[in-house]
Amino acid sequence: MNKRFLSTIAIAGAAALALTACSSDSDADPGATGDGGSGDTITVGFAQTGAESGWRAANTESMENAFSEANGFELIFNAADNDPAAQISAVRNFINQGVDAIVIAPVVEDGWDDVLEEAKEAGIPVILEDRTVSASEDLYASWVGLDFHAEGVKAGEWAAEQYGDTATKMVVLEGTTGSAPANDRAAGFAEAIEGTQIEQIATQTGDFTRDGGKSVMEGYIAQYGIDGIDLVFAHNDDMGLGAIEAIEAAGGTPGEDIKIITIDAVKDGMQALVDGKINYIVECNPLLGDKAAELVKQVIAGESVDKSYYVEDQAFDQAAAAEVIDTRPY
Ligand code: GZL
User: Checking CA distances to 14, which of 148, 202, 205, 257 falls within 20 to 30 Å?
Assistant: First the structure.
């Protein structure tokens, strides 16, 4: 799909956020039963992944702020504790409750066809935010999120530039198995380091959590030793922060003995970057609530919307992080 620049919206902290959209239009479901068009309250069921990371907390806050009563919404919130089956069950409950619209941040890409078909048959439009699904795009009205593959490429290109000319042994802390960010970040990073001397010696999921990253890193250190690992690529800041704890507990110096590259750029990650314990972070902006709420209103009102809206990301080394850390909104 061709990405097209669509609009720029200001977000908390006045940081401009550029949105790009993909061209395949999708007309709102003519059978939408939402009464939002008449200015009445729009009841929205929001199926969140859980509360696995600092990124997720910022995303939930953004969604709750956007889908507020003052903005014309009644929000029914469910957090699935990273459990795909529980999340599908929550969506089915929203359908049975007869909500006007459903918003989903899908834990994993697969397994969504049946319940999305049920929502379509019930005339309830679905908006995806954050992660994507493998189901047909006819089964949801629109998606707003980040280009996870590009995030992986950006992280890998920096690694290739910094470490690609010398023999470098890398371990990976993967995100939730089957999730779009884990799949796409891994693919993008691998493409970017192809042909360099960076060798991936191990990869395992830490489920995007700090404890998960720490536990997996402890296993890597037990297997390879601090001296046997040169680089950690963590699919999110929280797992990178867990790796820092494991490296320090084993007597190592994170950011020096073992370099660390992560993705998200949440406050704790950026502080570790400023402190020299992480070496590079690619941003993944969690502030998707305003766009998701705008899309719900447009779809309920029967307006045509694009199928995808991409939020653009930045990247930070230690010097760049020190310049912005005090003014970032998350
Ligand atoms: C990315 C998001 C990921 C974050 C993690 O958009 O889905 O899930 O990178 C979060 O921190 O848990």
Answer: 148
